[in-house]
């Protein structure tokens, strides 16, 4: 190697090191491309438990319970937000409307279109996604950014719900309820949370702990649909979702 070539190689190495100092190595979550919302929901639908019908028992412990008071043990059969049967085995069930109902189970039905309709009805912007973090866990955010904006956060590695913030049907404009999904375990081929914490704008807090979970088993005798006709607002949301699906396709 000539002296001139040696000086050139040393100079090139110096420039390379200088560039590496000036240009930080960005983590993947900081890159420009983010998976679109419709694909995120498709991945989510493939990774959650998925069911036609769901039977479960859970313990509902409300922050309103007094010292020494037993939490309610609830048997629940679910097919859709309009198709639910609830039986209280023991304890006091908190009737406060700020507590989320069984409709949150719609997030785990395994059907992307049903999940989209559920999220749209609760105020989420289904055309916005971004990276974020929740307690140090890298996640995808569906919905607009903001401390009170309706959002769904999905764990980046498994595409399962971590947090759902939404506008409850009985709340005032701008009020939201926040739900955290924890203690995931396998339910068949997908994942289901066994601890669900909630905090409503009204100040109501509580936790559901799943005691037993069964998918696609025969429903109890007398189980029937209580579906009601769609309201004008729901029909408008249906049109918005259809336009969204036509734009982005399957």
Order of H and E elements: HHEEEHEEEEEEEH
- Beta content comes to 25-35%
> How many separate helices?
4
- Overall mean confidence score, pLDDT: 78
The largest sheet is: 10 strands, antiparallel
Low-pLDDT segments, ≥5 res: 16-30, 225-237
The CATH topology is given as outer membrane lipoprotein receptor (LolB), chain A
> How many domains in all?
1
Features:
250 residues; alpha+beta; outer membrane lipoprotein receptor (LolB), chain A; 10-stranded antiparallel beta sheet; 4 helices
Please give a structural write-up:
There is one protein chain. This protein is an alpha+beta fold and 250 residues long. The protein has a single domain (35-218, 227-248), classed as outer membrane lipoprotein receptor (LolB), chain A (Clam). 23% of the residues lie in helices and 33% in strands. The protein has a 10-stranded antiparallel β-sheet, with helices on one face. Strand 8 and strand 9 (190-200) form a beta hairpin. Helix 3 (112-121) crosses helix 4. The radius of gyration is 23 Å and the shape is globular.
Please give a quick description of this structure.
With 250 residues, the protein is of the alpha+beta class.
Write the layout of secondary structure elements.
Blueprint lengths: L2 H20 L14 H11 L6 E9 L9 E9 L2 E8 L21 H10 L7 E6 L2 E6 L8 E5 L5 E6 L10 E11 L2 E11 L4 E11 L16 H17 L2
Helix pairs in contact: 3-4
